[in-house]
Design brief:
This protein is 5% helix and 37% strand.
């Protein structure tokens, strides 16, 4: 079955040992025109951050319950590259809106 990626944004993320955050965005690799990373927001953990996770780490997507299951532990996800370490250009990390 085929699904739009925009449906996955906001899905909860479960590691092999429990919940860790939610899918915030996607990064594409322009050199090969494919999804390079899922951006996971781990802010429901103290000291949370946005991390880049390989889509190959997805073990299952539960569409009905809006959960992405990863074949990684919470510690492995927390230790994943931040957006800066994934070489995302600074202009890509600014919010698309301004709160005044």
């Amino acid at each position: 079955m085929v699904h739009r990626l925009s449906r996955i944004r906001g899905f909860h993320v479960h590691a092999t040992d429990g919940s860790i955050g939610h899918v915030d965005d996607f990064l594409t690799d322009e050199t090969v025109a494919r999804i390079g990373y899922l951006v996971i927001d781990t802010s429901n953990w103290l000291g949370g951050k946005w991390v880049a996770i390989s889509p190959g780490s997805i073990s299952k997507i539960d569409w009905a319950n809006q959960v992405v299951h990863l074949a990684l532990t919470r510690q492995e996800i927390r230790n994943s590259p931040s957006m800066e370490e994934a070489n995302v250009p600074p202009y890509e990390m600014t919010p698309g809106f301004v709160i005044m």
